[in-house]
TrEMBL record:
The lineage of its organism: Eukaryota, Metazoa, Chordata, Craniata, Vertebrata. Residues 451-475, 684-736 are annotated as: Disordered. Coiled coil: none annotated. Residues 453-464, 689-698 have a biased composition (Basic and acidic residues). Signal peptide: none annotated. GO terms for cellular component: cytosol; nucleus. It comes from Gasterosteus aculeatus aculeatus. It comes from the Eukaryota. One of its GO terms (molecular function) is ATP-dependent protein folding chaperone. Keywords: ATP-binding, Cytoplasm, Nucleotide-binding, Phosphoprotein. This is Heat shock protein 4b.
């Protein structure tokens, strides 16, 4: 099971994984741990991440970035309308009222939802994680759910101030409207982001130059940190508000804070650090990697949740960020009733059971009850219709139990509803039972009695009734009720399935296009490689057909940039095959010539080794006196034959022209070496037979040589000590 954390940022993303006993941030295919949150749409495929960012100028209208802030917002949202002016791509209203992104993809105009574009980016991050882990990734933790925040306070907002300043400056100095040209505007954004980073480390005046920004005009300007902070005073003033909210929600005072750790790219801005430090009255900690800390934290949380990882005892309790209430039509009087079911900072995941008394279907509306604290203007979560509610057989209201839940993802839902049907029996009598709260961990029962039910209860109670009166035995039957869910911004199941299907098709299209481009690149690489080598290392191995091959390479190169610019994959494969028919024999002759001397050398060493063995046997070397003479003669003959074959092959090859195929190939020489080794080695390395002597003749009990070998010194010393008990077995000298 994989353990992965994703930090999906406004401009960049990071992927962290848990492995080898720790958490690490992994690199993408460009060996960069930072992946731009960018998706580019082309005529044949999509580019995502770093590949997309490289097209941000050349394909600006179809390259999407900064879409994170569009999530969950209606197209008519004032924030979306303000943001629209700074976007170089087009956004439109979707049928559901949400914001869509209009691009040109596969030569057609397409509109993608923000969720679809985000899914594309997540697909890329998933591929990066899978490549690092070498296994599929199915579950992950993604950073989304902050404790106190300001959605308009981030690195991008500082960039906007710089862009606005320089656009106005260039308008006055050069009489150009940068915002009228998307490409020019993007280049200004890119340079402003770089300038912001440099100013964090440098307080002096810094140049701002862009060549040929528009209308062949080179522009220049300058900025220093003091000017920048003065320009961004309004943004910097917003830093304190979320910090104050954070303390209020946590019910802490500033002096209760032990340490403050800052993360995020914008935390490097000196003015931001200064204000946070001043607010808490403490020096800030920067022990974590400001860019990667969130992704690493996500991976740690994923490891905690995963049953496959054992994590040091460490508890994290998620909370409900904003208070959630339910409201419903009141049955007693016209109007609405409401109830806060999950207050702010309530633990999550958590379930609660609400009890209603109703005679007919009813609806519940979930909403955030403090709209002023929300990041979005619409506090509505969704509508939930409890269906098939009917009265009891007696005509009384039925008890309906509704279970509401905030799950591990922080998403609110009405998870189930059930009707308690009362069935009376006259068989026996026993006291009335009262309902008890569900005591399961993480669940609470709330009893909601509307006035009509309360009055009915009072009417039934009689003052002269004995305190322990018997009632007929009551049987109950629980009936599950269907719920019609209408979340405000959640995708419908059919739409979600359609999006998943479309994403699968686009992934396949990207894969096919990559294979097509790879096939084209292989042809191009082969052309350049062979063209250079034909007049280099391969030159002396080329026959008279070199002109034919050179012409073929030249024709192929021209074809690649003309008719071959956009061809199917199979066409490139066939073209490469044609070239290799002419070029491969030349490369093989070169390879043979390079490897042949070494192969002959190895064979020669083998022959020399066995020739020395035969000579040693003939000289009555004791090492080989146990071998059979016939076997040695066999080795002698095989060695002589191999020597003759090698000399003949070398002589024949020396007369061979390098432009024709070799008379003997490396594989033949290597086969001859293996053949000689397998035939002779078992004879040469045959061990001497071991001689077992009778017990009385055991050399351990004798003080003499056995088979021409002396006893071990230790054994001789031991024997001497036994025969002369009074003597001492001492060394010749003492060693300190």
């Amino acid at each position: 099971m994989s353990v992965v954390g994703f930090d999906v940022g406004f401009l960049n993303c990071y992927v962290a994984v848990a492995r080898a006993g720790g958490i690490e941030t992994v690199a993408n295919e460009y060996s960069d741990r930072c992946t731009p949150a960018c998706v580019s749409f082309g005529p044949r495929n999509r580019a995502i991440g770093a590949a997309a960012k490289s097209q941000i100028v050349t394909n600006c209208k179809n390259t999407v970035q900064g879409f994170k802030r569009l999530h969950g917002r209606a197209f008519t949202d004032p924030y979306v309308q303000r943001l629209k002016n700074s976007l170089v791509y087009d956004i439109v209203q979707m049928p559901t009222g949400t914001t869509g992104i209009k691009v040109n993809y596969m030569e057609e105009e397409k509109v993608f939802s923000v969720e679809q574009v985000t899914a594309m980016l997540l697909t890329k991050l998933k591929e990066t994680a899978e490549h690092a882990l070498k296994k599929p990734v199915a579950d992950c933790v993604v950073s989304v759910l902050s404790t106190a925040c300001d959605p308009e306070l981030g690195g991008k907002d500082f960039d906007e101030m710089l862009v606005r300043y320089f656009c106005e400056d260039f308008s006055k100095k050069y009489k150009i409207d940068v915002k009228s040209r998307p490409r020019a505007l993007i280049r200004v954004y890119q340079e402003c982001e770089k300038l912001k980073r440099v100013m964090s480390a440098n307080s002096s005046d810094l140049p701002f130059n862009i060549e040929c920004l528009m209308n062949d005009i080179d522009v220049s300007g300058k900025m220093n940190r003091g000017q920048f902070e003065e320009m961004c005073a309004d943004i910097l003033a917003r830093i304190e508000a979320p910090l104050q909210n954070l303390l209020e929600h946590a019910k802490l005072k500033r002096e209760d804070i032990y340490a403050v750790e800052i993360v995020g790219g914008a935390s490097r801005i000196p003015a931001v650090k200064e204000r946070i430090s001043k607010f808490f009255g403490k020096e800030l900690n920067t022990t974590l990697n400001a860019d990667e800390a969130v992704a690493r934290g996500c991976a740690l949380q994923c490891a905690i949740l995963s049953p496959a990882f054992k994590v040091r005892e460490f508890s994290i309790t998620d909370v409900v960020t904003y208070p959630i209430s339910l409201k419903w039509p009141s049955a007693a009087e016209e109007g609405l009733s409401d109830c806060e079911v999950f207050p702010m900072n309530h633990a999550a995941p958590f379930s609660k059971v609400l009890t209603f008394y109703r005679k007919e279907p009813f609806s519940l509306e979930a909403y955030y009850n403090k709209p002023s604290e929300l990041c979005y203007p619409d506090p509505t979560i969704g509508q939930f219709l409890i269906q098939k509610v009917i009265p009891q057989a007696s005509g009384e209201s039925s008890k309906v139990k509704v279970k509401v839940r905030v799950n591990i993802h922080g998403i609110f839902s009405v998870s189930s509803a059930s009707l308690v049907e009362v069935q009376k029996s006259d068989e026996t009598e026993e006291p009335m039972e009262t309902e008890h709260a569900n005591e399961k961990e993480g669940e609470v029962t709330i009893l909601l009695l509307h006035p009509t039910t309360t009055e009915e209860g009072k009417g039934e109670k009689k003052s002269d009734q004995p305190p322990q009166a018997k009632k007929p035995k009551v049987k109950t039957k629980v009936v599950e009720l269907p719920i019609e869910n209408s979340p405000q911004w959640q995708l419908a199941d059919d739409m979600l399935n359609l999006f998943v299907e479309n994403e699968g098709k686009m992934i396949m299209q990207d894969k096919l296009e990559k294979e097509r481009n790879d096939a084209k690149n292989y042809v191009e690489e082969y052309v350049y490689e062979m063209r250079d080598k034909l007049h280099g290392v391969l030159e002396k191995f080329v026959s008279e057909s070199v002109n034919a091959l050179s012409l073929k390479l030249e024709d192929t190169e021209n074809w690649l940039y003309e008719d071959g610019e956009d061809q199917p994959k199979q066409v490139y494969i066939d073209k490469l095959t044609e070239l290799k028919k002419l070029g491969q024999p030349i490369k093989e002759r070169y390879t043979e010539a390079e490897m042949r001397p070494k192969a002959f050398e190895e064979l020669g060493k083998q022959i020399q080794q066995y020739m020395k063995f035969v000579e040693a046997f003939k000289m009555k070397d004791e090492q080989y006196d146990h071998l059979d003479e016939a076997d040695v003669k066999k080795v002698d003959k095989l060695t002589s034959d191999a020597m003759m074959w090698m000399n003949s092959s070398m002589n024949q090859q020396s007369k061979q022209n390098l432009t024709v195929d070799p008379s003997v190939k490396v594989k033949d020489i290597e086969a001859k070496t293996r053949e000689l080794f397998s035939a002779c080695n078992s004879i040469v390395t045959k061990p001497k037979p071991r001689v077992e002597l009778p017990k009385e003749d055991n050399p351990a009990e004798q003080n003499g040589p056995v088979n021409g070998q002396e006893k071990a010194p230790e054994e001789a010393a031991s024997k001497a000590a036994t025969e002369n008990p009074g003597s001492e077995n001492k060394p010749d000298m003492d060693l300190d």
